[in-house]
Structures are given as C-alpha cells and as structure tokens.
Design a protein that fits this description.
Low-confidence stretches: none
Helix content: 55-70%
Structural class: alpha+beta
Mean pLDDT: 96
Radius of gyration: 14 Å
Shape: elongated
Largest sheet: 3 strands, antiparallel
Distance between the termini: 25 Å
Number of strands: 3
C-alpha cells in the first residue's frame, strides 16, 4: 500500500507517493501518462509489450518512489512535517 505525501513548490502543491502502487499493477502505463511522466510511460509501454504485461508486477513495487524522487530532484519539497518524516524514513531526503 502506498503512503501519500504532500509536496510543494512555490504556491503549488502536489501529491507524492511511496510504496506499492496498485494503480500501476492494474492500469500500467496509463498512470505515468496521467501524472505527466511521459518518459516512464514510454519505458513502461515497451516493457509491457516485451513481457505481455507482466512487468507491471515489478513496476508496482518501485514506480511511486521513482516518481516522487523525480519531483524532489525538480525542486519540490515536503509540504508538512508528516511528509518530511516519511521521506527521511524512506531515505529519500536527509534532515
């Protein structure tokens, strides 16, 4: 089950996730498309074509962390202490 976090950049807020992604498991490459992450959408389409969809099982375990890490690299920050604590526990940021 994914853990939800709040991220902010200026006046904008966005939901970040870490943990297992049920949406990736069932909907595959559509999830990164809706999140605007087209690079990973293309990667997932290729992997799904090669593995007949079985790659979704593997991707479900790590895509949320990859997506949230990308947001953090692009300047997004934890919006509250709860989100900051989760990111520190997962080793995605330092104090």
């Amino acid at each position: 089950m994914a853990t939800e976090l709040s991220l902010k950049k200026g006046n904008l807020t966005k939901k970040g996730l870490v943990g297992f992604s049920w949406t990736i498991l069932f909907f595959g490459f559509f999830v990164p498309i809706f999140r605007g992450d087209f690079t990973w959408a293309i990667i997932m389409v290729i992997l799904e074509a090669i593995t007949c969809g079985a790659s979704n099982i593997v991707m479900a375990f790590f895509y949320n962390k990859v997506y949230t890490s990308k947001l953090l690299e692009n300047g997004w920050e934890p919006a509250d202490e709860h989100s900051k604590k989760i990111l520190i526990e997962k080793g995605m940021i330092t104090e």
